[in-house]
Amino acid sequence: MDINKILSADILDILFDGRNKQYGAYDLRKTYSKRITFALVGTMVICLLLVVGSIIANSTKKSKAEIFIAEVNLENVKEEKKPEPPPPPPPPKQEPPKVEMAKFTPPKIVKDEEVKPDEEIKEVEKLEDTKIGTINQEGAKDDGIVAPPVEKGSGVVEAPKQEEDYDKVFTVVQIAAEFPGGLPAWTKYLERNLNRDLPVENGAPPGKYTVVVSFIVSKTGDISDVTAENDPGYGTKAEAIRVITKGPKWKPAVQNGRNVIYRHKQSITFQVSDE
User: Fold this and answer.
1) pLDDT of 145-185, one tens digit each?
2) Measured CA distances, 135 to 28, 103, 122, 128 (Å)
3) Average pLDDT, stretch 243-254?
4) What is the pLDDT of residue 165?
5) Which residues does residue 132 pair with via DSSP β-bridges, in sequence order?
6) Beta partners for residue 272, in sequence order
7) How confident is the model at residue 87 (pLDDT cuts 50, 70, 90)?
8) Residue 148 CB: number of other CB atoms within 10 A?
9) C-alpha 69, offset from chain centre
10) Who's near 157: CB < 8 A, 6+ residues apart?
11) Where in the chain is the domain with CATH 3.30.1150?
12) How far apart are CA 216 and CA 76, in angstroms?
C-alpha cells in the first residue's frame, strides 16, 4: 500500500493489505458494525410494536356498565277484608202460656131475650181464680206468673271500632307513594343521574352489584332517612344514596283517604360486563 494512502486507509484495509480479501473474513469484519446496528434497530422495533399492540388491545377492551332499576313495594296493596263473624243465633221464641181469662161485662138492664151468650155475667165465685180481660179465653189459672218479655233486636253483635294511628310509619297502604310521573319517570331520573361507570372506575370486575335502599316519604312528599340495607362495594352504596337524597318530592301515600308517612324500598343494580 502506498505511503500516501496509509493515513486515510481503514484499519481493515491495512490488515488485509496484500491478502486475499475475497476469502470472506474481510467482508465479515467490514460489515460487522452495520449488521450489529441493523439487529439492534430491528429488535427495538419489534419490542416497540409488541408494547404498542398490547396497549391498543387493552384500550379497546373496555368494561361496560349498565344500570337496572327494580321497584319494591310500588304496587297498590289492598288490605284483605276479614270475614265478618256470623251473627249469634236468635233466642228461641217462646209464647207466653195462655191464662184463663173472662170477659168483663159491665152491668146494664136489658130484656132477657136481648142478652148475648158472651155477655152473660159470670158468678163471682167462678171469677176468683180467673183473670179479667176483654175476651173469654181458656187456659191455665193465673198464679201471678209474669211471662218473660220478648226481646226485639237484629241479633248482630258489632265489634268495637278501633281508631287507626295515622302518625306511624306505614309499610303497607292502600295507595303507595309515587314519584311524579310514575315508574317510567322514576326510572329515567335514576338512569340520568346515577354514574353508571362508577364501579368500573373503582376497579370492579364484571358482575352485578345490587344496592337495596329504603327511605321515608312524608305526608307532604319530602324524602328523608335514606339508608342502604347492603353495600356491594366500589362506591355503589354512596352513589345510590346520593341520587335518591337529592331527588324531588314524591306523591305521598294514602290510607283511608288520608296522607300518611310511608317507607319505600328501592333496588338499584349496577352491571359491569366486558364489551
Assistant:
1) 555 555 555 556 665 666 778 889 999 999 999 999 999 99
2) 160, 4, 13, 17
3) 94
4) 85
5) 102
6) 65, 207
7) confident
8) 8
9) 12
10) 85, 87, 88
11) 63-81+164-274
12) 17
CB-based contact 101:132 (threshold 8 Å): yes
- Is-contact 205 234, C-beta < 8 A? no
Which amino acid, residue 213?
V
Residue 72 has which C-alpha cell? 319494591
| Rg of the chain over all Cα atoms, to the nearest angstrom | 55
Binned at pLDDT 50, 70 and 90, residue 235 comes out as very high
Grid cell, residue 26, equals: 474481510
Q: Which of 55-59, 139-143, 271-275 has the lowest mean pLDDT?
A: 139-143
The grid coordinates listed for 218 are 312524608
Residue 92: half-sphere exposure toward Cβ, Cα within 13 Å? 2
Give the global pTM: 0.48
Of all residues in the chain, what percent carry a pLDDT higher than 70? 54
Task: Measure the N-to-C terminal CA separation of the chain; round to a whole number of Å.
Answer: 73
Backbone angles phi, psi at 83, to 5 degrees: -65, 135
* Set of cell numbers at residue 238: 354512596
- 190 to each of 14, 68, 217, 244, how far by Cα in Å? 85, 9, 17, 8
Residue 134: C-alpha distances to residues 104, 125, 143, 183, 201 (Å): 6, 19, 19, 81, 106
Ranges of beta strands (E only) in the chain are 63-72, 101-103, 131-133, 169-170, 207-217, 223-228, 253-255, 258-274
Is the domain spanning 63-81+164-274 CATH 1.10.10? The answer is no
pLDDT tens-digit series, residues 110-129: 666 666 665 555 565 555 66
